[in-house]
Amino acid sequence: MRWSQMFVPTLRDDPAEADAPSHRLLLRAGYVRQLTAGHYSLLPLAVRVRARIIEIIRAEMDAIGAQEMLLPALHPAEPWQRSGRWELMGQEMFRLRDRRGADHALGMTHEEIFATVARELNSYRRLPQQWYQFQTKFRDEPRPKGGLMRTREFTMKDAYSFDLDGAGLDASFGAYHGAYTRIFERLGLPALACEASSGTMGGSDSTEFMCPADVGEDLVVHCPACGYAANIERATSVLPAASDAPGPAAPERFDTPGVRTIEDLRAYDAPDDRQIKTLVYVLDGTLTLVLLRGDHPLNEQKLVDATGATGIRAADPAEIQDALGALPGSLGAVDAFLPTPLPVIADEALRGRRDMFTGANTDDVHLRGVDVDRDIEVGKWADLREVEAGQRCVRCGEALEIRRAIEVGHIFKLGDRYARALGVEVLDPDGKRVPVVMGSYGIGVERAMAAIIEIHNDDRGIVWPLAVAPFQVTVVVAQSDDAEVAEAAEDVYAALKGAGVDVVIDDRAERAGVKFRDAELTGIPFRVTVGRRGLAEGTAEVTARATGDTEKVPLDAVVAHVR
Ligand code: ATP
Ligand code: MG
Ligand code: MG
Ligand code: MG
After folding, report:
1. Distance from the CA of 444 to the center of ligand 1, in angstroms?
2. Where is the Aminoacyl-transfer RNA synthetases class-II family profile domain (predicted)?
3. pTM of the model as a whole
4. I want to staple 230 with a disulfide (CB 3.0 to 4.6 A). Which of 7, 195, 302, 342 is the partner?
5. For residue 447, which ligand has an atom nearest its CA?
6. How would you class 100 by CB atoms within 10 Å of its CB: exposed for 0-12, middle for 13-18, buried for 19 or more?
7. What percent of the chain clears pLDDT 70, i.e. is strictly above it?
């Protein structure tokens, strides 16, 4: 590849609109351009990095026996209606009608669609199956941000496991857990495997892979000593123990059945069949639980959308009360409003955090009093109490950290929910029809690209790990108007190419300084400079991007040197 023919529109200055280092660098180094908020065009260098990330993920998926497929991005409403998620996904789902008036969605995930294919499995003899794809997902994010970090269309590697029973699912889940650990290691992402909640996927168990970074939108509790790690969303979904000081009384206009304190909350029995959800806010460093009651199944996403749409900011409890009070009836009624005097989990870390912990639901820790104690995972809760009390982990007594992190991957045990809803059944060894047990496993490809940059950059630009770099080497022709230099550089370039090295030659009619700056900005791991001075003694300079170290290397030894 010749730099003179490539489209790499680097910018001299930092773009004003960039809100994260990776966003700034992707724009400045000529990797991406924004079409509109949340939609980016990937330029040639970005496409190369994306392909390398995909290669690594694919290799690890294939290594655990997963099979690549490709399912449609446009879905009829029917399977989504059958699973109940046509409703549940709320405004995050892009919807459209075809010319016949039939409802469709742009796929935001593919559990339902893979399940339709899995109907043909039929017999336990065909299980387990591991299926995956790289496919564009569409999500109408309320706040796209951070360049490629949170977009409205992105490539996901999504995988799905199909097993006969829970033990099979455990084995599948374990295999993906291992594969993800290897993938993130190869990508240069120091991801922590965190206990997490399952959100709108449903299911019993989920692990998020979280890459610590200042621009991360999630918070994770982590003990470096013993490795305990959990998303704080999950953490705050566990109800606190009784607190001595009762919170302020809930406002009259809410239908509050005598719930004033956390103790009341624990003892609370919903008056009818309806479900209860808790939204957790942080108001000036105080955790505040808001209980909402809704029809079954309570539409959490809708609630979140609606409360989000009201523009609530974590400033004023009264503001939140007003906004929640104004929600349309079908979305749920406010049962209780409980500003708790809970000592705050890492006050500092939470400041500036997005105002609402969505998905902090009580699906597991049920509010029907009797179940509360049984369902709380005591170890987890105890860990968190320790965070509040002294920032020590109960498992090992060492200090806990709370860190911002980017969710780069997420794996779920789904159970048989989708199989039941969509009729994915097999004959078991006794000839009985049983629903299959599913898992789902996602990695955001472009988000991974952005996260890698967040971890690997310096004041001169991106510093790609070799495994994902767009090119391994750039050969810089220091004086492009010197025929002898140009010829020697072409020879080095040809030798590298012949040896299978991914190489570009910077043959532009530019000053060497410009080429050096672009090589650094774009993050190419090795720069081989061929110039007049070195040529006189038969050498080139090899500079490593990561360390800045430069070595003189005989021209015929360059290939060996960069490999
Ligand atoms: P988030 O909490 O950041 O919104 P999510 O929990 O909604 O992410 P999942 O449904 O778990 O995401 O999807 C699997 C993976 O897809 C995520 O771990 C992330 O890497 C990626 N991903 C999700 N949403 C986006 C997005 N809007 N832009 C880019 N990548 C995304
Ligand atoms: Mg999301
Ligand atoms: Mg998430
Ligand atoms: Mg997730």
Report:
1. 6
2. 38-465
3. 0.78
4. 195
5. 1
6. exposed
7. 69
